[in-house]
Design goal:
Helix content: 25-40%
Strand order of the largest sheet: 10-12-11-14-15-13
Low-confidence stretches: 1-6
Structural class: alpha+beta
Number of helices: 16
Mean pLDDT: 92
CATH topology of one domain: Uridine Diphospho-n-acetylenolpyruvylglucosamine Reductase, domain 3
Number of strands: 15
Distance between the termini: 28 Å
Shape: globular
């Protein structure tokens, strides 16, 4: 067995779930989880967490060349951590002590030349390469499930490419290496009094490169929230060479190269660095928690706000059940979490107009609390009430899920986007279809909820959450039921006119929906582009598309 690379490493991650290996729930979170399980008629009990010594991994099938050996690791912890992402199915398989397909090796290049050398070696030896940023994929995007035609699989971890290389304070942009996790890049930008302002739920354990190649969505509800909006230039290492784009605020010079890198999911090359647009940190804030007796009226209010040009930073609508999940409601009212931020100006006029729209649609709010929230200081007011409670639940939810999975509980989410004129029918139709599928798969009724995470003038991004349990309480039965439910969810969002994913990427788990959503001619164009830069098809086979003349098919959690 090889030794791990000699350079310093990040703290060890929990291979069977979310967070670092020493992550733990607070007493309050244990109580919250106990209540959630009771609502599902499932008993909260302590079960032994998966241990490394419970897994037997096959020996690596190839040996790296001598000049690269120091960059490779085959320790059980590294291989298990890189065998899959952090979806429900990934966690469930670990609880079953059935590791998803482990990579033969994990490589840790120290710089871009290391990436080039590893790809050259892999291409010469028929080794598939899975680019790996923070490993937070929830759609089978980093799983080493590549079919049987490869001699081996290497997971290419970019954790050492984690520096801010250059800051341009005049244009407000920075060149940042792709392996930088959210906290790492923000800490390096802070001395320059600048921020990327991109905060997905996975912020703590996801990387800039991962955000770009999966077209990640951030926390903010309007305007610049997708990583697409921040990308100024990219540098992509492919088996056929390095492609870099020019820094420009905009260009009409033909098809935009960066648009091909965005959403490529590691199939075209390895993103090593990018120039991204920055902002000054916000100084002014205002927030409100709004209650609606009728969900239809609440949705109409959100549409009015989205079309008003006010551009709130937060405009998150929780239906009645979602409010219960988040611990901010009693199941009788929908709640709109509304917020504004600015680095330049006070927000009284913006919030006042938004609250006029709220009142027009029958919403109610605490005017004194709104007034207290308006500040040019980073006070706790804007983090209190429903907004603060929702934010805390949003960030901590992955930690709550992990122990519940070991008790046979199925807790998962899926997200999409739909135009406003179709939203009401979509909302009702998808909830009906999923409730029926969950009942069929588990024999149980379900708690199914929805929140609008992002809103556009022409439509919202619904994000649905469901919780149920296996009839016999076993993880194996729960995983089998999840596969049925996931397939049904994919079918429902496409059948009712939505996109297969708004910000969670395609990976392997959403590929069947992607193939129905995207025109076949375009997929042929993408396959041709992949063949040009990756002629032997070694990069992330099976994600998005199959390599030309090398069928892989849909593999991973849904195929097993």
């Amino acid at each position: 067995m090889s030794k791990a690379p000699s350079l310093s490493r990040r703290p060890p991650r929990r291979f069977w779930g979310w967070g670092n290996a020493d992550a733990a729930l607070s007493e309050r979170e244990h109580a919250t989880l106990k209540g959630m399980l009771a609502a599902l008629e499932s008993r909260y009990a302590s079960r032994p967490e998966p241990r490394l010594d419970e897994f037997t991994l096959p020996a690596p099938r190839v040996t790296p060349s001598a000049n690269l050996a120091a960059l490779f690791s085959a320790t059980p912890l590294d291989r298990l951590n890189h065998s899959a992402g952090k979806s429900y199915a990934d966690c469930a398989r670990m609880w079953l002590r059935q590791a998803p397909t482990p990579p033969d090796w994990v490589a840790f290049p120290e710089d871009e030349q290391g990436v080039i050398d590893i790809l050259d070696w892999a291409q010469s030896n028929n080794v598939a390469v899975i680019p790996y940023g923070g490993g937070s994929s929830v759609c089978g995007g980093v799983e080493a499930a590549v079919g049987d035609s490869y001699a081996a699989v290497v997971s290419l971890d970019l954790e050492r490419l984690n520096r801010v290389l250059e800051v341009d304070p005049v244009s407000r942009a920075a060149c940042i290496q792709a392996g930088a996790l959210g906290p790492e890049l923000e800490a390096q930008l802070k001395p320059h009094q600048l921020t990327l302002r991109h905060f997905p739920q996975s912020f703590e354990f996801s990387s800039l490169g991962g955000w770009i190649v999966t077209r990640a969505g951030g926390h903010y509800a309007t305007q610049q929230t997708h990583i697409d909006d921040f990308v100024e230039a990219t540098r992509l290492v492919t088996p056929s060479g390095v492609m870099h784009t020019r820094r420009l605020p905009g260009s009409g010079a033909g098809p935009a190269p960066d648009r091909l890198v965005l959403g490529s999911e590691g199939t075209l090359g390895v993103l090593t660095e990018a120039w991204v647009r920055l902002q000054a940190p916000p100084r002014f804030r205002a927030s409100a928690s709004v209650h609606f007796a009728q969900y239809k009226a609440a949705a109409n209010c959100v549409r009015a706000i989205a079309q008003s040009g006010l551009n709130p930073s937060n405009c998150r609508l929780l239906d009645t059940q979602e409010a219960v999940f988040a611990g901010v409601g009693d199941g009788r009212k929908a709640i709109l979490v509304l917020g504004f931020e600015s680095a330049d100006h006070g927000l009284q006029a913006w919030m006042a107009r938004a609250l006029e729209l709220v009142s027009d649609h029958g919403g109610t709010y605490d005017a004194e609390a709104v007034s207290r929230s308006m500040s040019d200081q980073d006070t706790i007011e804007h983090r209190s009430g429903a907004a603060g409670a929702w934010r805390e639940a949003f960030l901590r939810m992955p930690y709550w899920r992990d122990p519940a999975v070991g008790l046979g509980v199925i807790m998962d989410t899926f997200e999409t986007a739909i135009t406003w004129e179709r939203f009401a029918d979509f909302y009702a139709g998808v909830k009906t279809d999923l409730s029926r599928a969950i009942k069929k798969a588990t024999g149980q009724d379900t708690q199914l909820s929805c929140r609008l995470t992002h809103v556009y003038p022409d439509g919202p991004a619904p994000y649905l959450t469901f919780a149920t349990r296996a009839a016999d309480g076993s993880v194996a039965s729960a995983l089998s039921a999840w596969r049925e439910i996931k397939q049904a969810a994919n079918e429902a969002v496409i059948a009712h006119g939505g996109t297969i994913t708004h910000h969670h990427a395609v990976g392997r788990d959403h590929r069947s929906g992607y193939e129905r959503e995207v025109d076949p001619l375009f997929r042929t164009m993408v396959a041709a582009a992949k063949h040009a830069v990756d002629p032997k098809g070694i990069l992330n086979p099976g994600v998005l598309i199959d390599p030309v003349n090398r069928p892989v098919g849909i593999t991973g959690a849904l195929a097993k």
